[in-house]
Structure formats: C-alpha cells, structure tokens
Amino acid sequence: MNSKSADFGTGSVRGNILRIALPMTLAQLINVLYNVVDRVYIGHIEGVGATALTGVGLCLPIITIISAFTQLFGAGGAPLFSMARGAGDARRAEKIMGLSFAMLILSGLALSVLCFLFRRDILFLFGASPDTAPYADAYISVYLLGTLFVMTSLGMNFFVNAQGFGLMGMLTVLIGAVLNLILDPVFIFALHLGVRGAALATVISQGVSAVWVYLFLSSRRAVIPLSVRRIRFDPRLMGQICALGLSGFIMAVTNGSVQIVCNATLKRVGGDMGDLYVGVMTVINSVREIITLPVQGLTGGAQHVMSFNYGAKKYGRVVDSIKFVTFVCVVFTCAMWLILFLLPEPFIRLFNSEEALIAAGVPALHIYFFGIFMMALQFSGQSTFVALGKSRQAVFFSLLRKAFIVIPLTLLLPSVAGLGVKGVFLAEPVSNFVGGVACFTAMVFTVRKMLCDSENELGKVN
User: Fold this and answer.
1) Which of 34, 266, 343, 458 could form a disulfide with 277 if both were Cys (CB 3.0 to 4.6 A apart)?
2) Range of weakest confidence among 6-10, 304-308, 327-331, 373-377
3) Is there a contact between 264 and 407 (Cβ–Cβ < 8 Å)?
4) How many whole angstroms separate alpha carbon 90 and alpha carbon 82?
5) Are 5 and 15 in contact, with CB atoms under 8 Å apart?
6) Which CA distances in Å does 143 have to 110, 213, 338, 395?
7) pLDDT in tens, 247-267
C-alpha cells in the first residue's frame, strides 16, 4: 500500500472507514479467540470443566488490566500519529510511534514482574475460593510470561491500522488466533496440561503475533517505519500520548474493576452457589467480548479517519464519519440483542453444558444484555472524543459509566427489594442507558461547537 492509498482525506468517507474498519472488526472478532477459545476448551475438561472455567474467569480482570496499557500507549499514540500524518509531519509521526513502542515495552516488563509476585493474593482478593484458586493460579502464572508479547502485538497494531494497512492489522491477529486454536487442544488434552496448556498456547501465539507486527512496522513496507535506534524520550510528548490514551485505559481498567466487584459480590450474595454465579459471569463476559469487539473495530477504524481529517482540517468529513459509525453500531447491537434474547442457551453451551450453569445463566444473560444497543452510543461518543484530541471529556465518560454507575449499583442493587444476584446483572443495562445517552449527547454538543468555531460545518448535525 502506498502513501496515496493511506490518505484518508480523499475518496468516500464510508469507503475509507470500511477499508480500515472491516479488517479491524474481523481482527477484533478473531482476537476473541485468544481467550474465549481457552475458556471453551477449559469449560469442557471432563469432570472439572465448570470449576476450571470459573478459575480462569477470575484471571480476566488481570488480563483486562494488562491490556489497558496497550490502550494507554498504543491507542493513545495512534490518533496523534494520524493527526501528524494528516498534517504532513512525518518526523513527528515517527517520533510518536517510537515513544509508544518504548512505553509499551517498559510497562510490559514491570507488569509481568509485579503481577507474578502478588498473583495469589490478587486472585483471592478477586473472589477465588479454595476450589477455584489452583486453576486460576496455574493459568495466570503461565500467561504472565507473555506480557511483553501482548503489549507489542496489541499496542503496536494500532499503528499498522493507522497507516492504512487494515488487512495487515487483521493478519497480525489472525496468525496468533489460528495458532492458538490449533495448540489449545494439543496442550490441554493430548499433552494433559489442562489450564496450563491453555495459557501456554496463548503465550506462544501472542509471541508469533508480536514478532509479525514488529517485523512489518520496522520494514520498508510501512509508510512510516519504526526505528528503535531513533527513539528519543520526550516527556512532553509522552504526556500527550498518555493523556489521549487515558480514556481507553480507564475504560479497560474500570472494566477489570467491574469484573472484580461483580465476582466478589456474586461470591458473597450467591452463598453456596457463589462459584456457580462467578462461572455464569465468566460466560457473560465472554459473550460481551464477542459483541463489543466488532463495535470497537468499527469505531477504531472511524477514529483513524476522523483524526486524519481533523488534522487535515477537513471537518465535513469528520461529521460524515460520526454519522456513519453511529448508525452502523446501533443497528449491529440491536441485532445482537434480539439474537441473545431469542437464543441464549447456545451461547452458554458453547462454554459449558452443565444444566445448573444453563439454568442460572439464561435469566442472567437476559438481564445483563437488556438494551445493549445503548452501549453503541457510548463507544461512538468515546471514540470521537479521542479521535479529536478531547482527552478530558473522553476520560470523564469512561469513568462515569463504569466507576460512578456500574460499581456502586453492583454493590447496592443486590440488597434492594430482594434482588440478590439479579441486582449484580442489572447494574450493566442501567449504566448503558445512563452513560450512553450522557456521552453521546455531550459529544454532539461539544464537537458541534468545536468544529463550528473552526469551519462552521457541523451545524448540519442534529
């Protein structure tokens, strides 16, 4: 792909978005395979599947928080990188990408060591029991060995997509996901490694993806290549990267925090069935990943187009991008809501077929995903704020939905009107309605004012 084909300032806005977003969306769906396939295989280990699945579910907050740093440095640097490209400043773009890479590597090393040292204390804090802790510890001990691979493959893939190489970005994820799909049954069942085998398959697969993305970005095929030798630390620019990535970071960290609070509350409120409900939440989180990752892929693709055109001062194209991505995301999430309402059992049986888990999971899934289309408004508003450099608004609405709405409701609703465990699952749809409306409304008014002051083109948006 040459520099012209990576120019988002010409041609159809929808075409530019779809050219990047479709491979990104497919890549996001494939990315689900890394951890979801692990859970599928683990949930069907004979005799211990449900308990092992719950144990691995307790590791999800740690995995989520680690991936949050790819948002902080990767998703934070990519919009600045795109703005610099749009403004024709290749030197600044190269500097941004190099700094992002350095911060991803350093944070990966620190996270790997810290999480490994305190893993058992963390797992019991997150809701582990004597039955589930051995499975959780076995999985996370191996998974943490691949932290650097996670940081490189996920964090730097933002810059592959930001340069217009949507297909190459998809291949980064596809290579690792297919390898993981092949290695999982070999390690788990053929070699009898159980949950350790699942984690080892993931680490090897992420390692291959990391090597792939590094070799591509440092090659001549990249529009702006990555040069490790030319990295120079710049505290001011590092601060700008972190400021813009903070909203995605907070969203991921608060997602991890919500998982922690939900698991701990379900363990407490569920009584003798506490471990079962934690298993139900593990299934729900897996289904949520399947639904939200395509939305993230589409909004991520649109974000690159918006950032480029904002840097190029083509504000009308920014408006068209916002309209298009919002419409598609709402339609998609409405369709998924209908499917989940009518056919909940197949999604649960994908992970485990025990009747107790299905009986508890179906009503929980119906409650949790009620009105899921409102989540699309949150993602659309959030990605627009980030794309245009409005970091404070993006951070605020990241905190609003999860930290200020979901977590307090998760703690309070179980004791309201005898809701019990239903109250834990009800917190999510309430936050989607309140947070989604607030974020999207604020985005429309904020962006309208900002762009109208510059070009008076956003007066067409209602």
Assistant:
1) 266
2) 6-10
3) no
4) 10
5) no
6) 15, 20, 35, 29
7) 778 878 888 888 899 988 998
